[in-house]
Write a structure and sequence with these properties.
Blueprint (H helix, E strand, L loop, with lengths): L7 E7 L3 H12 L8 E7 L16 E5 L8 H10 L6 E5 L3 E3 L3 H9 L5 E10 L6 H9 L14 H9 L18 E5 H7 L10 H11 L3 E13 L3 H4 L1 H13 L6 H4 L11 E6 L5 H11 L7 E7 L16 H10 L5 E5 L8 H7 L7 E6 L6 H11 L3 E5 L5 E6 H9 L4 H8 L2 E5 H7 L2 H17 L5 H21 L2
Parallel strand pairs: 1-2, 1-4, 2-3, 6-8, 9-10, 9-12, 10-11, 13-15
Antiparallel strand pairs: 4-7, 5-8, 6-7, 12-14, 13-14
Helix pairs in contact: 1-4, 15-16
Length: 492
């Protein structure tokens, strides 16, 4: 990055905490990224003693006061409100209790100058004591003394372990979103606006949910190890784990399907389903449809929305219950028309459903998997999704002897393909890869003792990655016990 050109809006939302904020601004004054290219916006979210801008702060620092109301208050609302009007190329969001190494922002910006689809995370360590003033801090940073500010510090071991395990999120799998935290992250302004900012329904944990949407929208998250910072004191979560989890678990689980261990506690409907399933209902029976659903939702905590495509208008014509050539379609419609997990879409009785026509029906969202199945295909959709996760392809599909297809598209692959321009199917192939197979080959991969062992190993690997606390270990043991019990009962 020899010639920086992108402008940056530094966004700090705070409620009280003037003393720490003064240190944050002092460290921002020492940033090596050209001061002409960044502006600092301090958002006062209803502080008991109004926030002020100290003398040691970047020249282009502006104080914004958010007017709280009964229905609009908190960091999420305040940040979304003011960020919506910012014009800078990049938005850098930071907490009001951080001290940054002078090259911190520059390390973020080298990624944004390379491509516009990066979300960059800074690297931080926690400290429990500091005795420097803003003037002392500024002078120390000016002399290159950032790393000597604290002789004792600690990291979030689970966070760093997840980063290491995923090769710095190069291979994030479905759990990579958990690495996204709000203390210091940057994103292109255009991407922030495309994502819609923070989820307005969340009071805390908004950064975690944003990380999930960044992932499903095909953006690339980068933990930048050279962007050093000190976090002044314990995080709110660390100090209030039980109450925070009690508050956040149900709120986040509404929007993050990967939290199925949380969802599995209760049989509720959720705002974002685990799967969106598009079904060509022509030549399909109700029994087969419900069997596919049962197989797909075999794991507790998963959910699905089904779009049923068929010539539904034909059902309006006069018919005889004893000689109904649309009996299968009518039975499906009659049983499911009032169930909100099913939507009916009209297609012509003779139309050929191409992959492009299926993609046109998909509205990219926070759902991680989009599935299509047609006719009398007997593919176990859960096994198909598991295969896609294991292989990492953007699309995995099966074709039977009657040319009935079933395929699953990974949400990040679809989102990236849609934004790349040109043919979506070709983009998925080039960027993520495809794997088509016969139903016989698919059955070979999912049948027999060797396959059961592979599936069991995949289960251990997938679920084992989620163990980050005694509670998660207990949930894992429960799942393992239920799986073993189910196999024992099935075999008598």
């Amino acid at each position: 990055m020899s010639r920086p050109s992108l402008s940056v809006a530094v966004v700090i939302a705070c409620k009280d905490g003037q003393e720490k904020l003064d240190l944050v601004l002092a460290s921002l004054t020492s940033q090596s990224y050209p001061s002409r290219l960044f502006n600092v916006y301090v958002i006062d979210d209803g502080s008991s003693t109004p926030i002020t801008i100290p003398s040691i702060s970047p020249k282009k620092t502006r104080l914004l006061k958010y007017k709280n109301s009964p229905s609009h208050w908190g960091k999420t609302a305040a940040t979304n409100h003011f960020a919506a009007g910012l014009k800078e190329d990049v938005l850098w969001f930071i907490d009001a209790d951080m001290v940054f190494e002078p090259d911190h922002l520059a390390h973020h910006m080298k990624w944004h100058h390379e491509a516009n689809d990066f979300a960059v995370l800074g690297w931080k360590r926690f400290v429990d004591h500091w005795d420097y003033t803003p003037a002392m801090l500024f002078e120390s940073l000016r002399k290159g003394g950032f790393h000597q500010l604290h002789s004792q510090s600690w990291s979030k071991e689970l966070w760093e372990e997840r980063v290491n395990r995923t090769q710095d999120l190069v291979n994030p799998a479905l759990e990579g979103y958990r690495t996204f935290v709000g203390a210091t992250f940057s994103i292109m302004n255009s991407q922030w606006k495309k994502l819609g900012g923070y989820n307005r329904e969340l009071i805390t944990g908004e950064d975690t949910e944003l990380g999930w949407r960044i992932f499903t929208n095909g953006l690339r998250t980068v933990p930048e190890r050279e962007a050093h910072s000190w976090h002044l004191g314990f995080s709110t979560v660390e100090k209030n784990k039980e109450s925070i989890h009690r508050h956040n678990d149900p709120a986040l689980a509404q929007f993050i399907p990967e939290m199925h261990s949380v969802r599995a506690r209760y049989e509720f409907d959720w705002k974002v389903p685990t799967y969106q399933v598009f079904v060509d209902a022509r030549n399909l029976t109700l029994r087969d449809l419900l069997l596919r659903r049962q197989e797909l939702l075999a794991v507790n905590g998963t959910s699905a929305h089904f779009t049923l495509m068929g010539p539904w208008k034909l059902l309006r014509s006069r018919y005889s219950p004893t000689a109904d050539k649309f009996a299968d379609l009518r039975e499906i419609h009659s049983w499911l028309k009032a169930d909100e997990s099913y939507t009916f879409v009209e297609i012509d009785s003779e139309i050929n459903m191409t992959i492009d026509s299926v993609v046109e029906l998909i509205e990219p969202s926070a759902t991680p998997h989009y599935i299509f199945i047609e006719g009398s295909s007997k593919v176990d959709l859960k096994h198909l999704v598991d295969l896609q996760i294991t292989q990492g392809h953007g699309l995995v599909g099966v074709v039977d002897k009657e040319d009935n297809r079933a395929f699953v598209i990974f949400a990040p692959a679809l989102s990236r393909a849609l934004t790349s321009g040109g043919d979506v199917y070709e983009n998925i192939s080039a960027q993520w890869g495809l794997n088509w197979m016969t139903d016989e080959k698919f059955l070979q991969l999912n049948a027999g003792r060797k396959s059961r062992i592979k599936r069991f190993n995949r289960f251990l690997k997938r679920e084992g990655k989620k163990i980050n606390s005694p509670a998660q270990l207990f949930i894992f043991i429960q799942k393992l016990g239920k799986l073993i019990l189910r196999k024992v009962l099935r075999n008598g």
